[in-house]
C-alpha cells in the first residue's frame, strides 16, 4: 500500500494573521500579560482578570487607569504601560496596512472597471 504524501498537513501553512487585539478576550489579555509583562504577571494578573480587561479595554488603559486598577508601584506601571504602548503601535500599524491594501485593491478594481 502506498501512503498518500499529498496530505495537506505535510504542506507548510501560510502565516496566519494574528487575531485583532480589539477582539481579544480576557483570556487573550492574560496570555499577552504573561508573555510581555512576565515580571508582573504573578502580581497583577488577577487584577486584570478581576476587572475583566479585554483587548479593547487594554488598548484604552493609561497610567492613571493602571493606578486605579491597583498598580501602585510607579516602575511597575511604567513597564506595563510601555508594553501597552507597543501593542497600540503594532495595532495601529496593522490597521494602516489594512487600509493601504484596501486602497490598492479599490484602485485596481476601479481601473479594471474603467
Automatic annotation (TrEMBL):
CDD domains: SAM_aveugle-like. One of its GO terms (biological process) is cell surface receptor protein tyrosine kinase signaling pathway. GO terms for cellular component: cytoplasmic side of plasma membrane. Pfam families: SAM_2 (PF07647). SUPFAM superfamilies: SAM/Pointed domain. It comes from the Eukaryota. Residues 24-90 form the SAM domain. This is SAM domain-containing protein.
